[in-house]
Write a structure and sequence with these properties.
Blueprint (H helix, E strand, L loop, with lengths): L7 H7 L29 E3 L5 E3 L1 H7 L26 E6 L4 H15 L7 E7 L2 H4 L3 H9 L5 E6 L9 H7 L1 H10 L3 E6 L4 H18 L6 H10 L3 E5 L1
Parallel strand pairs: 3-4, 3-6, 4-5, 6-7
Antiparallel strand pairs: 1-2
Protein name: Sulfite reductase [NADPH] flavoprotein component
Pfam families: FAD_binding_1 (PF00667), NAD_binding_1 (PF00175)
Keywords: FAD, Flavoprotein
């Protein structure tokens, strides 16, 4: 509205203060006790009018010089490892949603170094292009070579004509999920955007249904997912 000329004080009253930006810690305290790592992807794009646009938090962080002080606070996360080190981990990370899983894998690697037995680790990751968004790619491959990561399911949706998503990679390895999740009492974690939650949950329900049928049982997959939620074996951190 070109005729509107609010004063500065009126604008300040109308506009809400910026909310703090929360990032998942991407490192294990056992491995780096005096520092934390964050997985941050700089947000920038061009709008329909050709103007450059930027994410406020990522542009601020990107502009900091080495050693610059920043104000932070730490809050508890819903992402917690199972109490048993032998409980398998099934993790699905979308984009920067891989952050807590790097911490998980580091912790499992540290446990193995200490001679503590560890369960299988299934990591599914999803992004658009491998060339631009293979976040921690070399690390994951090194952990796989070292026997920490048991299965690495990579879904780069735009790298081929047919779009491949994280739920597709999970469905391709349904037998592995059944074994780790249902037979070995593993825990499932999803971190990232909200949009794949229904599709990923459908794959888990399918695994439950197939497993029950193979055992000659009848179960309600949705009720089973609710039970797994209560047992902290189905954990979501989505935004």
């Amino acid at each position: 509205f070109p005729s509107a000329h609010p004063s500065f004080h009126e604008i300040v009253r109308i506009v809400s203060p910026m909310k703090r930006r929360e990032y998942s810690i991407a490192s294990s305290q056992k491995v780096t006790p005096n520092s934390v790592s964050l997985l941050v992807v700089t947000v920038d794009w061009v709008d329909p009018k050709g103007r450059d646009r930027f994410g406020q938090a990522t542009r601020y962080l990107n502009g900091l010089h080495l050693g610059a002080p920043v104000t932070v606070s730490v809050k508890p996360s819903v992402m917690k490892l199972p109490q048993k080190s032998t409980a398998p981990l099934i993790m699905a990370g979308l984009g920067t949603g891989l952050a807590p899983f790097r911490a998980f894998v580091q912790e499992r690697a540290w446990q193995k170094q200490q001679g503590i037995p560890i369960g299988s680790v299934l990591l599914y990751m999803g992004s658009r292009h491998q060339r631009e968004e293979y976040l921690y790619g070399e690390e994951w491959e090194a952990y796989q070579d070292a026997g920490i990561i048991t299965l690495l399911g990579r879904a780069f949706s735009r790298d081929q004509k047919q779009k491949i998503y994280i739920q597709d990679r999970m469905r391709e390895t349904l037998a592995d999920i059944r074994k780790a999740y249902l037979h070995e009492e593993g825990a499932f974690y999803l971190c990232g955007s909200t949009w794949p939650v229904p599709d990923v949950t459908n794959v888990l329900e399918e695994a439950i249904e197939v497993d029950a049928k193979a055992a000659g049982k009848k179960v309600d997959p949705r009720k089973e997912i609710d039970r797994l939620k209560d047992e902290l074996r189905y954990v979501l951190e989505v935004y």
